[in-house]
Backbone:
């Protein structure tokens, strides 16, 4: 393969989609730009619990106003041929305008899950994530990065990155010095930064801060095989996805991950409120299971408070799923589990824990515990 040849062709809308799942492409009329669905918003599709859905996403990088609002020109300046730019990204940019007070993300949804009600948990299993383009962008801007107010790190700047293959694995590549041919490469592990449910609010919230609804939680463990559990806020849940990433370090310290478009294959189910209430002593907000791990979250504008919330949620999950004493669960977590900053740049800070299910010799017999632990 020539050095300047793309690693693979772009995956345009409708190409390679099978007939075994509901397919939701990117259509300009069926996405939100920088806002999240709210109660009363009309769904773009309706599915039933247990259904599998294939959803296209596009990245906001390369289409924003400060990048010229022209993805063909922006990516062309980095050597990408016009035919290797996603047509749906071009259409969205040409026909939709972003509210200046909104977030940057293109959000696909809402998708109604028939029969889901407030009090239920929506279980979104990530089955497969396919890269739609052999390139992406990482950036810092708007004084939002961790070092934004430090001399030399402020300002708006970014880096175009190409995807390369090495030893059967995909890597992102970028120059590491602007005046020398030094380069860094890092393994790709795609995930969706945004998975959420509609909020019971009068207005559409910004896509930037995460919350009880999920949204922009930026947990890089949400790769294929993981399931995210979200407290349903409105009838039929009205879930959505966006903010596709090819790679992200925990913390997302500069502001963005390697932002790049994905096609997601998801299976969506519902845990009814009766099972949730019989199992959990209290709400624990969004949490995940997969790869042998339970992954509680903690969200707050204050990072210390986010950690405290995450630890409390972790204790509740260990108590609920393994019939543990709360104080013993607390001690176990200190000895054996990791608590990591998910992201520190999205107004509301995020912390997530990683609890190994294999550490426990006993599992609760409740229906709720079964429904969660079967996702490991």
Residues:
């Amino acid at each position: 393969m020539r050095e300047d040849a793309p690693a693979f062709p772009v995956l345009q809308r409708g190409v390679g989609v099978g007939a075994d799942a509901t397919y939701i492409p990117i259509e300009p009329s069926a996405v939100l730009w920088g806002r999240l669905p709210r109660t009363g918003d009309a769904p773009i599709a309706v599915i039933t619990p247990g259904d599998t859905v294939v959803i296209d996403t596009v990245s906001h990088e390369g289409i924003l106003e400060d990048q010229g609002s022209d993805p063909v020109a922006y990516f062309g300046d980095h050597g990408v041929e016009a035919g290797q730019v996603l047509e749906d990204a071009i259409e969205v940019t040409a026909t939709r305008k972003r509210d200046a007070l909104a977030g940057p993300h293109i959000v696909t949804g809402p998708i109604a899950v028939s029969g889901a009600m407030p009090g239920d948990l929506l279980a979104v299993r990530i089955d497969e994530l396919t890269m739609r383009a052999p390139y992406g962008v990482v950036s810092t801007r708007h004084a939002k990065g961790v070092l934004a107010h430090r001399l030399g790190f402020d300002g708006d700047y970014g880096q175009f990155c190409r995807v390369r293959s090495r030893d059967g694995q995909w890597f992102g590549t970028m120059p590491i010095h602007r005046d020398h041919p030094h380069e860094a490469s890092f393994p790709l592990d795609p995930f969706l930064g945004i998975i959420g449910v509609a909020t019971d609010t009068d207005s559409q919230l910004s896509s930037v801060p995460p919350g009880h609804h999920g949204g922009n939680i930026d947990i890089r463990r949400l790769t294929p095989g993981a399931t995210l559990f979200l407290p349903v806020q409105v009838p039929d849940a009205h879930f959505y996805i966006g903010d596709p990433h090819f790679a992200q370090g925990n913390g997302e310290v500069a502001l963005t991950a390697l932002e790049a478009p994905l096609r997601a294959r998801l299976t969506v189910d519902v845990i009814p409120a009766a099972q949730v209430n019989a199992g959990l002593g209290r709400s624990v907000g969004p949490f995940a299971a997969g790869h042998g791990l339970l992954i509680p979250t903690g969200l707050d504008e204050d990072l210390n408070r986010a950690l405290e919330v995450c630890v409390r949620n972790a204790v509740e999950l260990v108590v609920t799923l393994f019939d543990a004493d709360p104080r013993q669960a607390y001690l176990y977590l200190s000895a054996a589990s990791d608590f990591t900053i998910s992201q520190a740049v999205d107004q509301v800070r995020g912390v997530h824990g990683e609890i190994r299910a294999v550490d426990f010799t006993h599992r609760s017999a409740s229906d709720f515990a079964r429904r969660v632990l079967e996702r490991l």
In short: The radius of gyration is 20 Å. The mean pLDDT is 96. The chain is about 15% helix and 35% strand.
